[in-house]
Amino acid sequence: MFAHLIQDPPKNFVEDPAPPVVPDAAGQLPRLASTFTDVDGLYYFTIVVCIFFFVLIAGVLAYTVVAHRRKTIDQAPASNATHNTPLEVVWTVVPLIIVMVMFAWGFKGSIDMTTVPVDARWYKATAKQWNWTFTYPNSTQESYGELWLEVDKNAAFVLESTDVLHAFYMPSMRVKRDVIPGRNQTVWFRPTEVGVYHLFCAEYCGNDHSRMYAKVNVVTAEQYASKPPPWVKWDDSTPSAAAASAEKQIYRTLCLACHTTNGAQLVGPSWTNLFVRQADGTVVGAQREVVVAGQRQTITVDEAYIAESIRKPDAKKVIGFENLPMAAFALDDQKIKGLVEFMKTLAPAAK
User: Fold this and answer.
1) Are 289 and 327 part of one and the same domain?
2) 81 with 148, same domain?
3) pLDDT one-digit tens code per residue, 158-197
4) What's the Cα-to-Cα distance from 245 to each of 122, 230, 240, 253, 343, rounded to whole Å?
């Protein structure tokens, strides 16, 4: 039901497939994987009320059309009554009561969703056009576009937006909370099943709103304690392929909307020609024309240039893209090194 909310990635990049959305027995909602049953209860109560009154009203209308139709052209009206006060009171009061029940039920669920238990682990989810950044309870680890949580452990989130209105929406956990610029919101849930789930932005936030998706991995206590992928540290002795693989999620989340990996041009220059593979297999930086302080220069691409372009994107603008804005990202040295290794895997052979 929610699969249409995930826009396919560009053909220039192959992304790990997300798990299929599993509907419940009624074929409506994805499988419930948290303790918030009020959402389902209210949903099905609303469905039942709608079906009941549709059948009731349609049945009365059909009966009236058949039983009280005019049989001859001069037939007198069956009644001249213009209104029925008791009937009008009934069909005003009964819907009012039902709507108030729905309101109270929904309000209770909303309060439960924002009243955080004292034993919850606190995370931060930062929304930015068009990606999610997650900060873990120790405040030192971060992950981009992918989150790891421990099963049967309360998880609370401080929600923060750095630009426009977003929404933190996890259908399987039955939680949704607006992420408002300049204001911290909170939401929590308790994942009850190990698996991979979907996190969407449910408020239109710009051109690539449909790509603002994150994968949520609910793992066992043992797996969580063993440090999930974003916490793994690597150094210069790590093979370059492993380093590139470790950080390619950053490209998927932060960079894919503007930079391709096949030479095509989007908002920003492609990453394909940043490095060149020589005949002996070594990869070296390519030459690039940039504008520095209004002056045109030729530079050689290296890790320092990539780091500067990520942290201070206006310092050296590529010719042809001088007037296009790029957001700055505060990535640490390890993540930048991983991105550089990923860029090197895209290098074409030297001509």
Assistant:
1) yes
2) no
3) 999 988 999 999 998 999 999 999 899 999 999 998 988 8
4) 28, 11, 9, 14, 11
